[in-house]
Amino acid sequence: MPEPRRAAMVGRFQPVHKGHVKAMLDILAEFDELVIVLGSAQLSHELDNPFTAGERMVMLRLALAHSGVGPERYWIVPVPDAPMHSVWVPMVLAYCPRFEVVYSNEPLTRRLFIEAGFEVRPIPFYKREIYSATEIRRRMLAGEPWEGLVPAPVADYIKALGGVERLVDLAKTDKPKRPGQDEVSSAPHTW
Amino acid sequence: MPEPRRAAMVGRFQPVHKGHVKAMLDILAEFDELVIVLGSAQLSHELDNPFTAGERMVMLRLALAHSGVGPERYWIVPVPDAPMHSVWVPMVLAYCPRFEVVYSNEPLTRRLFIEAGFEVRPIPFYKREIYSATEIRRRMLAGEPWEGLVPAPVADYIKALGGVERLVDLAKTDKPKRPGQDEVSSAPHTW
Amino acid sequence: MPEPRRAAMVGRFQPVHKGHVKAMLDILAEFDELVIVLGSAQLSHELDNPFTAGERMVMLRLALAHSGVGPERYWIVPVPDAPMHSVWVPMVLAYCPRFEVVYSNEPLTRRLFIEAGFEVRPIPFYKREIYSATEIRRRMLAGEPWEGLVPAPVADYIKALGGVERLVDLAKTDKPKRPGQDEVSSAPHTW
Amino acid sequence: MPEPRRAAMVGRFQPVHKGHVKAMLDILAEFDELVIVLGSAQLSHELDNPFTAGERMVMLRLALAHSGVGPERYWIVPVPDAPMHSVWVPMVLAYCPRFEVVYSNEPLTRRLFIEAGFEVRPIPFYKREIYSATEIRRRMLAGEPWEGLVPAPVADYIKALGGVERLVDLAKTDKPKRPGQDEVSSAPHTW
Amino acid sequence: MPEPRRAAMVGRFQPVHKGHVKAMLDILAEFDELVIVLGSAQLSHELDNPFTAGERMVMLRLALAHSGVGPERYWIVPVPDAPMHSVWVPMVLAYCPRFEVVYSNEPLTRRLFIEAGFEVRPIPFYKREIYSATEIRRRMLAGEPWEGLVPAPVADYIKALGGVERLVDLAKTDKPKRPGQDEVSSAPHTW
Amino acid sequence: MPEPRRAAMVGRFQPVHKGHVKAMLDILAEFDELVIVLGSAQLSHELDNPFTAGERMVMLRLALAHSGVGPERYWIVPVPDAPMHSVWVPMVLAYCPRFEVVYSNEPLTRRLFIEAGFEVRPIPFYKREIYSATEIRRRMLAGEPWEGLVPAPVADYIKALGGVERLVDLAKTDKPKRPGQDEVSSAPHTW
Predict the structure, then answer these.
(1) Which of A114, B170, C89, F57 has the fewest C-beta atoms under 10 angstroms from its C-beta?
(2) How far apart are CA C70 and CA D73, in angstroms?
(3) Chain E window 98-137: which residues touch C at a Cβ cutoff of 8 Å?
(4) Chains near B, with 3+ CB pairs < 8 A?
(5) Interface mutation target, options D84, D130, D138, D141, chain F, most CBs of F under 10 Å
(6) Residue-level pLDDT at F1
(7) pLDDT digits 0-9 by tens, C131-181
(8) pTM for this predicted structure
(9) Residue F148 neighbours by CB under 8 Å, 6+ apart
(10) Per residue, what are the HEC states of A20-51?
């Protein structure tokens, strides 16, 4: 029995939104299985990366189940960042089931996979200016409604884990307004 | 809707064998979902760790499907090794969907999870002396039959990807017999 | 004999100033011992982190001795940054003597310790807008008087090691004004 | 006021024993202050490195207080291992208050400090064959009396934190006797 | 036979330009051999660091050959970034043939080498405002002529490897204009 | 002008010996240029890796000059070890000028390059049992004559830098004979 035909889609999914799901459904119409590369897996508790890899995995399964896609159609593979761009593609390949095609609109991701000999296809985004993880995090911080941009069970899950409160906490600061100012507390950065 | 009750099982799965599957079935009889922590995810192409994380993920899905368990019942989470034992458990927790109980027989794994406040249960192994990844790798290298120790589709998959040849290659050496001898070629080690 | 009751305070102490000392005295009025977590211990020779961990340790002891606090009342624990936020608290715990309470105003530090189950208390700062390491570094670079913001022996120590000259050197550049411009020399960054 | 004259002593202190204390007293008879470099600070929960840096710091203070030496006479500086031998000395120097002389019997430590231009003196050990951290760990595992080899408050502290049980747990294994055998559980190794 | 007298010059060489070559010729008029420290060797495929270490090595040899300098007069040593500034100089020393003097205008590089006891000399730049790697990358992105700023064989080499296209690709983005916005694709960052 | 035809040879060169040189001459008879991948570049001051990358670079140039091969025929590229085997080849490729063929007898090196699509050829060794870096280090430690196994200027260079004394120092120990015993001094290991 041959391996199924698989395509990969790379994202950070901070958080998963309806644009992601739409793209995944499109890819699954073309391929047997989808490999979801959950990038920057080691990051969490940052303004741009509030959710852990585990939380993002749950969101992805909830989102796809909500669209009728069972986990036998896809793989979720958390992959930590690479120490240098030139080894990122082989690192992804080592972490993932084999795939044939990559879907991405991100220029660096596209170029690295193309230089590695992969076919890379664009993702036809649906209402990109609103279905955007950045826009969702902005709305969460601004207290504006964001729930409509994500599948309903993802919204419920984020609320249940206190995701908005976490983001607000990360944005809160008691510091004087001069930028870069750091006082008593160290920010634990990556090495 | 509450989160499903989940238990975790930690392993390197080099390769997946029938003992693993038996343990997973036992755990799934007790819990809604199983979180399979695929440890040392970054390792491959070593005598003790021949297979990549991606290959081990495929083996796990093949093995469980062969026993009638669909992926909606479990999560496979590749986790790289930690830089210090004291941060390994929180690193696992950040990578995985939340779980309540850990199944493990490995003393260090047990102690680290117990110190972190988890309930840790032993795995009742089935014919441990033969259903063993070490035994399987030994048989592969010795040219002895190993296929019966793993689920049939796992054996097929390993053969299709040339896994035995890879292991034999890793064991082969043209070097004189004095131990530690290294000649022209550097072994690419972990940093 | 039971372990002493300890509280922790996290900081980078670039450099130690009177606001730090005031907060430490307040904490020591409540606890037997203070654990001073010297964060970002690996950093030095940067505009925001000019001093080495060793230099900061000396400053802390000088500052507390100047207020009549001997080292039997506190621990100074240099802790390097963590590779991911989710392991920073367990890493701090492994490096430090056990403590019960954390004092911090920094939102991320507060949240990470709270998620780890710690009681976190705010630090009532004294004249925060001037007793600030950022303000001190700014004054050092601007050639304005900064000595009054730090305990006298800390000022002497910084002068003796040529700290201001080091900071000025780090800020100096012969480069044309276009930002991000880098010429012949590589900046040695963290990995 | 000039900086005090300081000498450094490097060790892992797994655990602290009477031989360490004897050497420290000898050094303190010659120097104003002692810098105790607590090496391999990041390691714990290993057979050769059972105790965390924080636990070893407490042991050191207990041991020296038991000999009448207050912490104003010494510094304890936890230092993680370096990625390459050639940067270990400068890393130690960055973490520590300045010192003039190094006491060490370990050949690599001696050579690296000598190549860096330091005066390195040998440590005159007292009954080396029994005052040895390796011997103490061996006795702990064998159930033989070990308490007499460490200062009394260190023995009490180790017992209170369950140190012997931890060591025994780390040595315990349910695995079949073939060496290198690894089953279900991954050992969480350093990166 | 004594070792040749060597001077070092540190740079990232993204890309090599005529100002670099001029400085190298000046140094080679004073010393037997030049050690070219190729910094940030691990970086590539970034807007500020588009070229790999291997590509930069080729550029350097082409550029110097074009000025009549053969490789017996110099060493090219790719050195990855260090995890902390305080170990960068010893790391460079371990990677390189021994040298006596360092040529650099970059303040941090200068200070770190001076603190390590080296003689550091300034580089008399030739028309610095145009012979600048940043200016060259800017022109490449803007579609302006850049070829005159680099030695002719370097320009040919960059064109042959598609360097301008790579840079343009790295700068391209389909993202909406709000800064920091990240969509489906993760940028593979350094660890 | 097309790029020269290049072949790569991977080694640690601890130290360079006549077998290495013989192999290099053979390769240079077939190719325009040789890329010498100096592996484990970050290691030094270990029994198996006594020499720094810089020292090994000097040895290589001395050895090849002694055989009449100038540096315009080869590249020496120090490459640090990779964090995982699966990214080692792409890391080597990023550090090196492009090459077409790899010469290696080491099974892992061979397999990794073959899996990456390279042609890998064996190295016909000359008197392998004696022209061996391990044998040379063994003789150095045993006080037996080793100079005949390396090119004459390499022997002179090793003597001038005190290489034998370094190796002897690294092997010396004052420790009791029980293996694994570690006392006061920490061995500075890789992270």
Answers:
(1) A114
(2) 11
(3) 104-112, 122-123, 125, 128-129, 132-135
(4) A, C, D, F
(5) D84
(6) 63
(7) 999 999 999 999 999 999 999 999 999 999 999 999 999 998 654 433 333
(8) 0.92
(9) none
(10) HHHHHHHHHCCCCEEEEEECCCCCCCCCCCCC
